[in-house]
Design goal:
This protein is mostly helical and about 270 residues long. About 80% of the residues lie in helices and about 0% in strands. It is built from ten helices and no strands. Helix 2 packs antiparallel against helix 8.
């Protein structure tokens, strides 16, 4: 249970850091690239050796490449959503996505039972994302809903892939740490390539704030994924039960952070 609590705390802190990036003018892409460098390093430091590189299957490489691409693209979208629409919107859109892996897991694994209450929860989750994305009593704006829904779909696919990898590819704490670090390493490479391209064009420069902010984000980010994998491995409950507890707790805590730290206002619809 301690791993679940640590995963929730780390994940909730990520949204606070994203909001602080906007406040302190931290360049988003460089900070996210630095974040993945430190997140990967944090995992590799814990390993006894790197011999596992020569023994892992091609399935690990494929899974890590796909997950890493989703990591960095969704991370950037989460940050932009948190800065432009608020922490509560970003956390709600990304974490209510749990309904996607819950449904997929229930379809693939008969033991992961999906009952009437869970189906009802799926319906309410979709309604909740729409209502949370609306700010004040202003008229409907497609842009304010489109990106949260993209974040919702992408995060759901990511959650499913992580749960699937845990079920079929990872069999120990060492596997969890190595796989997490491998995904973060590939995410760093994806981001570094984009950053290099923008740097050649002269469109971006890395400043000290991006390095410091990205380093802090990297440590928290690594913890959020590693502790979630350790929670899955602990078999304290079915994955279809762990995901709702984890994600809903993140929504509640990050929203409280947004109110207490940033004085974000929630409309009647948001509440």
């Amino acid at each position: 249970m301690i791993y679940l609590a640590l995963s929730i705390l780390c994940s909730s802190t990520i949204y606070v850091i994203f909001k602080l990036f906007g406040k302190y003018k931290v360049q988003l892409l460089p900070a996210i690239v630095v974040n993945y460098f430190w997140a990967a390093s944090s995992g590799f430091i814990q390993l006894d050796s790197l011999d596992q590189f020569t023994t892992i299957s091609h399935q690990w490489w494929i899974a890590a490449l796909i997950i890493s691409f989703l990591f960095i693209s969704l991370f950037y979208l989460m940050a932009k959503t948190a800065q432009e629409l608020g922490v509560s919107v970003s956390s709600n859109a990304s974490k209510m996505s749990m309904l996607i892996p819950i449904v997929l897991l229930a379809i693939i694994y008969p033991s992961e039972h999906l009952g009437a209450l869970q189906i009802l929860g799926v319906i309410f989750a979709l309604i909740g994302i729409y209502l949370t994305s609306q700010k004040g009593n202003t008229s409907f704006k497609w842009k304010s809903v489109f990106w949260p829904f993209v974040l919702f779909i992408g995060s759901g696919i990511l959650d499913f892939l992580i749960a699937y990898a845990n079920e079929h590819l990872l069999h120990s704490a060492a596997d969890d740490s190595f796989f997490t670090s491998l995904c973060f390493s590939f995410a760093f490479v994806w981001g570094a390539l984009v950053l290099l391209y923008q740097g050649i064009k002269g469109a971006i420069k890395i400043n000290r704030a991006s390095i410091i902010g990205g380093s802090l984000l990297g440590l928290v980010n690594y913890g959020s994924i590693y502790f979630l994998l350790r929670t899955y491995a602990g078999n304290i409950a079915q994955k279809t039960a762990i995901l709702p507890v984890n994600n809903l707790a993140i929504i509640i805590i990050s929203t409280l952070f947004s109110i207490l730290l940033f004085q974000e206002k929630l409309s009647r619809n948001n509440i």
